[in-house]
Design a protein that fits this description.
- With about 325 residues, the chain is mainly alpha-helical.
- It has one domain.
- The chain is about 75% helix and about 0% strand.
- α3 packs across α4, α6 crosses α12 and α12 packs antiparallel against α13.
- The longest helix has about 35 residues.
- The chain is globular.
- The relative contact order is 0.16.
C-alpha cells in the first residue's frame, strides 16, 4: 500500500513530536504523583554535593554505555552502527519503557533509528541481550535467595511469605530454562518451527541462531559488567543516605532486590511504588533508616530510569519515519 506525499509528510514531522509530548506527559505524571515528592527532593538536594552521588550519576552513563556496546556487538552481523547511534537507540528505548509493562517497549524504541528492513530482526536480536541480562540477574539472585532462605539468622526475612523454598526452586528452574533458551536457541527454533501457528514468525528469529557460544558468552560478560554497575550504584547511594548495612549483606540484598523486581509485573508508572515497598521490606530488615532507604530507591529510579527516559524522549522528538527519498517516491 502506497502512502501519499502529504500523509508521509504528516507522519514524518508529527510522529516524533507527538511521541515527545506523550512521553513527557507520562514522565511528568510519574514525578508529581510520587508521595512526599517535595521532602524527597529536599533530601536529594541536601546531599547533592556528596562525591559518592556524583559517582552514582557517572555510573549511570557507564550502565547505559555498556548496554549500547552490547547492542552494537549483537547487531554487527545485521547492521553496523556507531557507538553513539547505539547509545541513541538505547536511550530511545528507555523512554518507550515508561508506557509498557516490565519494560517490554524498549525493543520498539531501540529499533526506530535502524534501517527499516532490519527492524523486525533487530527486535529478536535485542531479545538475546535481554535474556543475557535476565540470566545474570536470575542466577545471582538465586545465590542471594539461597543465602537468605537457608543461612541467614535474620528472623524478619525468614518470615516473609515470598521467601519460600518453593519460590527459590522455581527461580532455579527458571535459570535452567533461560540457560537452555540462551545457549540452545537453534535447537529451540527447530522445535518452534514445527508449530504451524508460530511458524511464520520464526524467520524473524533466525538471526538469533547465528551467534556462536563465544559470542553469547561475550554478551553475558557485558551483562555482568552492567550488573556490577547496578550493585555499585546502590551501595554508594545507601552510603550517601546513611543507611548503615554491612557491605556483604547489602550486596546480597541488592541482588535479591533485582531478582524480585525482574519477576514483579510492573508498568512504568507503578514501578517506583513497587521498588519503594520492596526496598523497605528487604533493607528494612537490616537497617532502621526507613526514610534513607526510600530516598535511596527514589534516587536510583531517578538517575537510572527517569533521566535516561527524558534523554530518550528528547531524542525521539527528532525521529523521522521516512527519508526524503521515501517521501517523494511513487508520488
Amino acid at each position: 500500500m502506497f502512502l501519499s506525499k502529504s500523509i508521509k509528510l504528516i507522519v514524518n514531522y508529527l510522529l516524533g513530536p507527538l511521541l515527545f509530548v506523550l512521553l513527557s506527559y507520562v514522565i511528568y505524571k510519574q514525578i508529581i504523583n510520587q508521595p512526599d515528592l517535595a521532602i524527597r527532593w529536599e533530601e536529594i538536594k541536601r546531599v547533592w554535593n556528596n562525591p559518592l552521588l556524583s559517582i552514582v550519576f557517572v555510573l549511570m552513563f557507564f550502565n547505559w554505555g555498556i548496554e549500547a556496546m552490547k547492542m552494537r556487538y549483537l547487531l554487527r552481523h545485521l547492521e553496523a552502527i556507531s557507538f553513539l547511534k547505539s547509545l541513541k537507540c538505547v536511550f530511545a528505548g528507555c523512554s518507550i519503557t515508561m508506557l509498557t509493562p516490565n519494560r517490554t517497549g524498549e525493543f520498539g524504541g531501540r529499533i526506530l533509528f535502524l534501517k527499516k528492513e532490519n527492524r523486525a530482526k533487530a527486535i529478536s536480536i535485542n531479545i538475546v541481550g535481554s535474556i543475557a541480562q535476565l540470566l545474570v540477574t536470575m542466577v545471582l539472585g538465586c545465590v542471594s535467595f539461597c543465602y537468605f532462605l537457608f543461612y541467614t539468622d535474620n528472623n524478619h526475612l525468614k518470615k516473609l511469605s515470598f521467601l519460600t523454598s518453593t519460590v527459590f526452586f522455581l527461580g532455579v528452574l527458571a535459570c535452567f530454562v533461560l540457560f537452555y533458551l540462551y545457549f540452545r536457541i537453534k535447537h529451540f527454533l527447530k522445535i518452534v518451527n514445527k508449530i504451524k501457528i508460530v511458524k511464520k514468525w520464526v524467520k524473524y528469529l533466525e538471526a538469533i541462531a547465528d551467534y556462536s557460544t563465544k559470542e553469547l558468552l561475550t554478551v553475558l560478560i557485558y551483562s555482568l559488567f552492567r550488573y556490577v554497575v547496578f550493585i555499585l550504584q546502590y551501595i554508594f547511594i545507601l552510603k550517601v543516605m546513611y543507611v548503615d548495612i554491612e557491605i556483604s549483606i547489602a550486596i546480597l540484598l541488592i541482588m535479591l532486590f533485582y531478582f524480585i523486581m525482574a519477576l514483579a509485573p510492573t508498568i512504568g508508572f507503578t514501578e517506583l511504588p513497587v521498588r519503594a515497598s520492596l526496598s523497605l521490606v528487604l533493607f528494612g530488615a537490616f537497617a532502621t533508616n526507613a526514610f534513607g532507604i526510600q530516598i535511596a530507591t527514589f534516587s536510583i529510579w531517578l538517575i537510572n530510569l527517569l533521566i535516561p527516559a527524558i534523554i530518550g524522549t528528547l531524542i525521539l522528538s527528532s525521529f523521522r519515519s521516512f527519508s526524503k527519498n521515501e517521501i517523494y517516491e511513487n508520488n
